[in-house]
TrEMBL record:
Keyword Transferase recorded: yes
The entry's keywords: Acyltransferase, Transferase
Domain of life: Bacteria
Protein family membership: Belongs to the acetyltransferase family. RimJ subfamily.
Keyword Transmembrane among record annotations: no
Organism: Rhizobium aquaticum
Name of the protein in its database record: RimJ/RimL family protein N-acetyltransferase
InterPro entries listed in its UniProt record: Acyl_CoA_acyltransferase, GNAT_dom, N-acetyltransferase
A Pfam family the protein falls into: Acetyltransf_3
Record-annotated N-acetyltransferase domain positions: 34-192
Length: 203
């Protein structure tokens, strides 16, 4: 899971990108084993259930604790209302039930202001390459649409699986940041990464 990911209570960025990604018209993305589809309100229950799993939530720094289905629905509604600039996908295996989330959104983040990648996957599917497959497909679509843009990501330092996903796809480590983790109740070190058209290596 990307440490600076989701689902969180987001607000529209004050610094708007020169080119936007539109949730309302985002494309469905299909891989050999997955379908990445647009989030929908009924996903709130599976998102909220996943946020009760400490294995997931401890790797997502910005998730409020506790996190209920109403919080997930509020987050989805922000996407639907265009209050978040970007794309938000449910990771599925047949276009049906949500098994994880993956997003790209614009964030005001100092010298890392720009497009940020975030993701998580249900632990029952860890270790089978599904996250690498999903991230590769989304990043490839992003780069094709937003040529020349940098995509930022990262992971908490004790999350080697997420860092391995990023490394496989050509994300470069650019430094470290100390970020407050709501689930852990303390500051945690985050490894900052980024990828561009020139460094991306699709899986």
């Amino acid at each position: 899971m990307s440490a600076l990911a989701l689902p969180q209570r987001s607000q529209r960025s004050a610094l708007l990108p020169t080119r936007s990604l539109d949730f309302a018209s985002q494309p469905t993305i299909r891989t050999p084993r997955q379908t990445l589809r647009k989030l929908k309100p009924e996903d709130q229950y599976r998102i909220a259930a996943a946020m009760q799993d400490i294995r997931v939530v401890r790797m997502l720094t910005s998730v409020p604790v506790p996190y209920a289905s109403d919080d997930a629905l509020d987050w989805i509604r922000l996407w639907e209302a265009g209050e978040i600039n970007g794309w938000a996908y449910a990771i599925t295996f047949d276009g049906g039930a949500l098994e994880g989330c993956i997003t790209i959104e614009w964030r005001d983040a100092g010298d890392r202001t720009g497009w940020h990648l975030g993701y998580w996957l249900s632990p029952s599917h860890w270790g089978d390459g599904y996250m690498t497959e999903a991230v590769s497909a989304l990043v490839e679509r992003f780069i094709g649409r937003m040529m020349g843009e940098t995509l930022y990501a990262g992971a908490i330092a004790d999350n080697p699986a997420s860092l391995k996903v990023q490394d496989k796809l050509g994300f470069q480590v650019t430094g470290t940041s100390d970020v407050y983790s709501h689930s852990r109740g303390t500051m945690v070190p985050v490894i900052d990464t980024e990828v561009t058209f020139g460094s991306f290596m699709p899986a």
